[in-house]
Amino acid sequence: MTFLDTIFARLERSAGANVLCEIRERQSVGVTGSQLQDLIEQARSFVAARGVKQGDRCALIAYNSVRWTALDLALMAEGAIVVPLYARQATAELVSMMKDSGPSLICCENSASAKQLQEQWPDGPPVVRLSEIFSGEAPKAIEGTPKRAPLPHADSDPVTIIYTSGTSGESKGVVLNAGNVNYMLGATNARLDLLMTGHQEPNRIFHYLPFCFAGSWILLLTALSRNSVLSMSTDLTKLADELTVAAPDYFLNVPTLLERFRSKIEENVQKSGGWIAGAYGRAKRKYFAADAGGLLDGLCLSFAKMAIFPNIRKRIGPNLKALICGSAPLARETQMFFQMIGIPVLQVYGLTETTAICTMDDPRRVEAGRVGPAIPGIEMKAAENGEILVRGPNIFPGYWQRPDATAQVIEDGWFHTGDQGETDASGNWRITGRLKNLIILNSGHNVAPEPLEDALAARLPEAQQVMLIGNQRGFLAALIAMQSADGSDGRVQTAVDAMNAEQPHYKQIRQFRVMGGAFSSESGLLTANGKLKRDAIAARFATEIEAMYETKPE
């Protein structure tokens, strides 16, 4: 029984109950298991009529929706290999990835998207809009007749090609097969069962991250395979309102959003002033350094747990059992902040090549700053240079049509993640940096930039991004992106000085430049999931970088 069989059986059991919702204008618009099955059948009929065969690749470029989900499941049920792509990505980049994967059909959001794709790739495959696929009434099954089952899949059969973000160089298509997904859904469901122990009602899940990302997709499939209702965001500018409507038990996040939540909450507390701000400051000091502070700090922490933190939790989500965070390491201070107010943050670590996940926090044993133990059945170890190596049924079979690239990252069954990490005696992992991002100073010192970037960003809530420079240079420098650079140098210098005081000489930042305006994926300086494109940033700001190194540091 494959993950598709499991999902289809669950939809059958939930025929009259909502399984997916779209939040629109503060209203939740849901579809039942039976309605989703009808949409899947409609999409299967459409793509079959268009000649899509088992093993064909089909591109899917659209925003999260019920129809996106129905089409994704329909294509896999017909034996096609889905190539999900980021709808906000530049059209030229989308075309490049599609030329690499060779789809027989392109399914996109609307007429404007279709026109742009056809202009960029005039001799490409047919382009169809979601409205064409789902036009008219969905075919209704005869009452009492079982729904059409998915075509059978062997574990080795590919089901998707997900393109990596490409922090440097060209994006590569990561092939994931049915066996990868079967295994991963068993692991994710087991962890969520621990989180929701004793909870009888359907899980309420809120979701805003694009389904074209591996971790986001795995959460979607997990939700569809268990007793849950997943509510989808349709307007990222209204997340707070949508959260109120969804009232979730848990939802998946990236560190950036949690950092913004924390910053906004603390800003509001400070604005309130008076005894509330004072009590909060003492409570936080006591929580973050349990052996510090006096009796008054302890009393303030007890008071905050009773009178301040419940109100904060209520505004974020009154039903929250936990926040789940992945894609990049979360700052330890931010994880501790949410723990302090009574909302555990469960970290997940993995890559697209590991079917999104290698480690998951056990809800019963969460340690701030670490990303949890390897999930059962997966082996992880650190190589001599600190690189994390992974082996198990979650490892992808290879990059699409790139055997040489595959051979470079898989050796004797071990996948080389490119990340650096360490584990404690209980097997709980901490991510310490990215191997290929290592800065090697002229002095020979090796510096992983990410921990220092995170530390400086934590001291500068207004900073959008921080990137360290210094490879083959005499000292470290930093580019700091802010929405407005006006009057910021003094604040940055104060933060840099405070951080430098805690670092050895070779990890101290000797120069910085504040850049007005945030880096973005649209400008080509961030990947689709918000990671720094270091080579592109270094090239764009080469003049500013050279100027920093022409200035003698103090």
Describe this structure in words.
Helix content is 38%, strand content 22%. The protein has 554 residues and is α/β, with parallel strands linked by helices. It folds into three domains: 3-134 and 153-249, 3-Layer(aba) Sandwich (Rossmann fold), CATH 3.40.50; 255-318 and 320-435, ANL, N-terminal domain (Rossmann fold), CATH 3.40.50; 438-550, GMP Synthetase, Chain A, domain 3. Helix 11 (274-288) crosses helix 12 (295-307). The protein is globular and about 70 Å long. It starts with a helix and ends with a helix.
Task: Tell me the quaternary state.
Answer: single chain
Overall geometric form: globular
Q: In the CATH classification, which architecture of the largest domain applies?
A: 3-Layer(aba) Sandwich
> Roughly what fraction of the amino acids lie in strands?
15-25%
CATH topology of the largest domain: Rossmann fold
User: What's the total number of strands?
Assistant: 25
* Count of discrete domains: 3
Radius of gyration: 24 Å
Unreliable residue stretches: none
The CATH H-level superfamily of the largest domain is ANL, N-terminal domain
Keywords, separated by commas or semicolons:
globular, 3 domains, 5-stranded antiparallel sheet, GMP Synthetase, Chain A, domain 3, Rossmann fold, alpha/beta, 554 residues, 38% helix
Q: What's this model, at a glance?
A:
38% of the residues lie in helices and 22% in strands. By secondary structure, the chain is an alpha/beta fold.
